[in-house]
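FAQ

Q: What does a record look like?
A: Structure on top, sequence underneath. For example:
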């Protein structure tokens, strides 16, 4: 008798759930897929890794993130330069980086936080050839070490050697030779 009561109760609960889940009209169902209606706002901008993090002062983060890239250099280059000079002794006394850029030229380049892509040349963050620098980014490019070298390394990458390398020389897994090229998970 107790077993029958449990069966009947389970049947009533299941029927109730089915009826509650059914719609009277199939056209009333929610559309499949994401809903793109509404207003969206950009919250963060990170064209070049670590640039926003390092060079934009905390009280200017929201303004920088909402500024279109074509206006960033005019609005933020002086802040970038002040922060670079505060960080790196390599630019003291009119010093330059390995690209031959002084603090003003380098921060003018960085203040427009976009990832450039070369359509007719090599795509790389830096391969030792100044003309190829920041022309895109290959998966294997060590972008943080390149940025550290350009910030702290001076004209020949010898200044501040302890600050000029993240000491991560390779990915922990090989990249795939076919799309999507990412390394396999652990």
């Amino acid at each position: 008798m107790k077993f029958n009561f449990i069966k009947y109760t389970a049947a009533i609960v299941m029927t109730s759930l089915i009826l509650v889940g059914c719609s009277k009209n199939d056209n009333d169902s929610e559309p499949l897929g994401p809903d793109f209606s509404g207003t969206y706002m950009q919250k963060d901008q990170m064209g070049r890794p670590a640039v926003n993090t390092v060079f934009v002062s905390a009280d200017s983060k929201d303004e920088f993130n909402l500024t279109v890239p074509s206006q960033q250099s005019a609005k933020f280059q002086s802040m970038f330069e002040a922060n670079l000079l505060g960080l790196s002794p390599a630019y003291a006394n009119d010093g330059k980086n390995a690209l031959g850029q002084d603090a003003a030229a380098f921060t003018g380049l960085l203040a427009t936080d976009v990832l450039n892509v070369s359509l007719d040349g090599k795509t790389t963050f830096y391969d030792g050839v100044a003309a190829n620098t920041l022309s895109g980014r290959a998966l294997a490019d060590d972008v943080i070490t390149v940025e550290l070298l350009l910030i702290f390394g001076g004209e020949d990458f010898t200044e501040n050697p302890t600050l000029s390398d993240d000491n991560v020389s390779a990915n922990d897994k090989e990249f795939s030779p076919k799309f999507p090229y990412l390394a396999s998970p652990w």
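Q: Is there anything notable about this one?
A: Residues 51-152 form one domain.
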